[in-house]
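R.M. (postdoc): so does anyone remember the format we settled on? I'll just put the structure tokens first.
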């Protein structure tokens, strides 16, 4: 008889390549057991504490940022971690306010003069 209801699968599939060819990789620094994908080499945890933030939430965060709400307040309202939010904001600012240092000038250095 086959029991297709695996209520307790011993090894979770790889979140990157969905391969089930994974092995236990021991606990990480936080004590969470980690797994290693034999197919793509990805190291991951079975139950990540921080689930990926949805696009909906990201959209909301952008609106709240537009209201000049504090990061602390936004993290409270949307339920994302402050560390994640800080990284997200950094990425946003990098995208939306590009700072161009300008082309590097090779001052004083003569370029290619031909011969
Ligand atoms: Zn993988």
């Amino acid at each position: 008889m086959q029991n297709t209801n695996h209520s307790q699968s011993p090894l979770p599939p790889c979140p990157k390549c969905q391969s089930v060819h994974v092995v236990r990789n021991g606990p990480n620094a936080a004590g969470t057991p980690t797994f290693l994908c034999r197919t793509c080499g990805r190291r991951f945890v079975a139950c990540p504490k921080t689930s990926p933030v949805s696009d909906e939430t990201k959209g909301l965060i952008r609106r709240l940022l537009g209201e000049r709400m504090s990061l602390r307040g936004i993290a409270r309202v949307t339920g994302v971690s402050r560390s994640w939010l800080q990284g997200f904001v950094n990425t946003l600012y990098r995208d939306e306010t590009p700072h161009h240092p300008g082309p590097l000038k090779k001052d004083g250095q003569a370029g290619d003069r031909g011969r």
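R.M.: ...and that's the designed sequence above, right after the tokens. Also worth knowing: The first helix runs from residue 55 to 66. The longest strand covers residues 22-27.
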